[in-house]
Amino acid sequence: MGLVQGKLALVTGAGKGLGAAIAKGLAREGATVVVADMDEPAALATVREIQSTGGAAHSFAFDVRVAADVVQVAARVGEQLGAIDILVNNAGMSVKGRFDDADSPDVWARVMQVNLQGTFNVSHAFVGALKKTQGAIINLCSIVAFGSGISSVGYVVSKGGVRSLTQVMARDLAPYGVRVNAVAPGLMETDMTAGQRATPHGTDWYCSRTPMARNGTPEEIVGPVIFLASSMASYVNGVILPVDGGYLAV
């Protein structure tokens, strides 16, 4: 029996990258997965991959930034599939930029809307269902939430916000049996980080400061997420779990 057998899980930003890997991993462990992404063809592609290996998956397209749309999708998921047991807030974006750049206010607004407001919107829309199932929420944070050497003001602060939001949600929802945790990836090999990995502040810089001396892969996020979503983590709440090859240990 899988670690999340019979559970209903929703993963945002699951059309590619970390989200797709997490969605496929949850399906392998027995969950029915709601693949959510604003890119509908990408979401459908993930669904087809899951179904091709015997898993169960459904796709819903929505923009995490638009609270009204998220609420509507939450109602549709509830009507069609039932109350979710697991929510993985993975949708995110990263735009490099210093605080004093000319376009910093616009970049700030875009990144905060997706990374922080989006996490709030989706969590709030599904919290009623998660109270019913006494479910688990896993947010995607980042090691930059603990301090950063990168010049990406919106991304760094948004992930710091996700760290704090995770801890507040964990406290507020614990009386209802809902656990809230986060994983904090290091530099992962995804499409989103391709540009960063190619810069002087990319792979070579990161690996020189990381005991394991390499980047992470999407599959290496899957295990920690499944653990936090499963009953094996029944007494784990409010934790921000680094998955970084030891970067924060140095």
Automatic annotation (TrEMBL):
Gene3D superfamilies, alphabetized: NAD(P)-binding Rossmann-like Domain
Pfam families in alphabetical order: adh_short_C2
SUPFAM superfamilies for the chain: NAD(P)-binding Rossmann-fold domains
Domain Ketoreductase: 7-186
GO molecular function annotations of the record: oxidoreductase activity, acting on the CH-OH group of donors, NAD or NADP as acceptor
One GO BP annotation of this record: fatty acid elongation
Family affiliation: Belongs to the short-chain dehydrogenases/reductases (SDR) family.
Name of the molecule in the record: NAD(P)-dependent dehydrogenase (Short-subunit alcohol dehydrogenase family)
